[in-house]
């Protein structure tokens, strides 16, 4: 029996609702995979912050870092609460974890499963993965403002791109492309305007591509990439991109592949120095929170990514297959969050 120590961060809004179902699925698959999952739950998020003033203490971080992997629901409280303005929880909790645990690969697969309705008329075979940079770009918080509130205000946000950070991400993306049947990599950037970062990204892709002669390389400006994601998403295999572009493209990717409720992600530290963290692409969805209306599928597919990352490919494939069977049978019927979990757990018991 293999033991996996899992840190669970349900978070805010629909986070706890979807995580509850994801954990049920994990428990269901663990039993037959000879896996013992030791879970520690961390009640972090808006509620704890408002109660105690703490978002993520050094002790919290150290405790989380001592686990083998992390499962996170979503964070971000009531958007109307001025005490939570400026993404204080998102930056202080989610981004802090990504940075502190060196999650430089933000892996976001997009698969349009058979029989799942897409808003696109002719989507074709959609199966691509966005390899989003996770620890640099405009997310580093390297900005500032002067003369705030005056007509002379100047607000700067600086995007940081290091040769080290771009290269390790690009190398991961090439290796990922080489392992996939189509072996195609598309760099998405904005090299016509963001010339300094764009040049670094393009030169890095050109140089690393020499190590992967079997991988075909392509480039798209991010604006044009949004056209192709809607008009011809089947053309994509592996997209490698900057932190912010990747954020935006993956919500679009979710929308074209059956909805944001199906989009899963992994925040990966490929070096294995720190635990990787798995979470739905979506947020805390305050508009539907507490009503059992959230689709837990993205959280459940994040469990599949987690199992895969831990080398438990067979268990991961069982979860994905159970999800694929469930989504294929959905039709238009509305189900609660728990009912979707029930259905997927039942599929696992059958196979
Ligand atoms: P969101 O993803 O929470 O919601 C966007 C829309 O998608 C909403 O209409 C919501 O109801 C719907 N939706 C999201 N997940 C769904 C699901 N599982 N099933 C059905 N519908 C779903 O994005 P937002 O409204 O921009 O952000 C809300 C809060 O979440 C903000 O505080 C934001 O900063 C935060 N956020 C957190 C994360 C994260 O924790 N990883 C990700 C994105 C946004
Ligand atoms: C995501 C989210 C986060 C991001 C926010 C909440 C900081 O949108 O995980 O996609 O921008 O990365
Ligand atoms: Mn996002």
From TrEMBL:
It catalyses: (2R,3S)-3-isopropylmalate + NAD(+) = 4-methyl-2-oxopentanoate + CO2 + NADH. The keyword Cytoplasm applies. It comes from the Bacteria. Its cofactor is Mg(2+); Mn(2+). Its EC number is 1.1.1.85. Transmembrane segments: none annotated. One of its GO terms (cellular component) is cytoplasm. It is found in: Cytoplasm. The keyword S-adenosyl-L-methionine does not apply. The record marks 139, 190 as: Important for catalysis. Keywords: Amino-acid biosynthesis, Branched-chain amino acid biosynthesis, Cytoplasm, Leucine biosynthesis, Magnesium, Manganese, Metal-binding, NAD, Oxidoreductase. Mg(2+) binds at residues 223, 247, 251. NCBIfam families: PRK03437.1. Catalyzes the oxidation of 3-carboxy-2-hydroxy-4-methylpentanoate (3-isopropylmalate) to 3-carboxy-4-methyl-2-oxopentanoate. The product decarboxylates to 4-methyl-2 oxopentanoate. This is 3-isopropylmalate dehydrogenase. It comes from Compostimonas suwonensis. The gene is leuB.
């Amino acid at each position: 029996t293999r033991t996996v120590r899992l840190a669970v961060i349900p978070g805010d809004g629909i986070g706890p609702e979807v995580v509850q179902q994801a954990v049920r699925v994990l428990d269901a698959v663990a039993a037959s995979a000879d896996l013992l999952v030791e879970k520690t739950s961390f009640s972090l998020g808006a509620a704890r912050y408002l109660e105690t003033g703490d978002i993520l203490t050094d002790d919290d971080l150290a405790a989380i870092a001592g686990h083998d992997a992390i499962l996170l629901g979503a964070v971000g409280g009531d958007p109307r609460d001025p005490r939570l303005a400026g993404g204080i929880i998102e930056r202080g909790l989610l981004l802090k974890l990504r940075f502190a645990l060196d999650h430089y690969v933000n892996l976001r697969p997009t698969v349009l499963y058979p029989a799942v309705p897409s808003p696109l008329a002719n989507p074709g075979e959609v199966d691509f993965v966005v390899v989003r940079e996770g620890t640099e770009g405009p997310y580093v918080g390297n900005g500032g403002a002067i003369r705030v509130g005056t007509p002379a205000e100047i607000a700067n946000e600086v995007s940081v791109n290091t040769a080290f950070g771009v290269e390790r991400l690009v190398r991961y993306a090439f290796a990922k492309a080489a392992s996939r049947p189509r072996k195609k990599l598309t760099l998405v950037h904005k090299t016509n305007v963001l010339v300094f970062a764009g040049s670094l990204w393009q030169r890095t892709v050109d140089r690393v591509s020499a190590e992967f002669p079997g991988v075909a390389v392509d480039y798209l400006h991010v604006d044009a990439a949004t056209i192709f994601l809607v008009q011809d998403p089947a053309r994509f295999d592996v997209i490698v991109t900057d932190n912010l572009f990747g954020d935006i493209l993956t919500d679009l990717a979710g929308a074209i592949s059956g909805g944001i409720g199906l989009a899963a992600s992994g925040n990966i530290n490929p070096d294995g120095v720190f635990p990787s963290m798995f979470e739905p692409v979506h947020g805390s969805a305050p508009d539907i929170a507490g009503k059992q209306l959230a689709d837990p599928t993205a959280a459940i597919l994040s469990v599949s990514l987690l199992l895969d990352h831990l080398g438990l490919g067979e268990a991961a494939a069982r979860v994905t297959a159970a999800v694929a069977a469930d989504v294929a049978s959905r039709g238009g019927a509305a189900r609660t969050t728990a009912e979707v979990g029930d259905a997927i757990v039942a599929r696992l018991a059958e196979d």
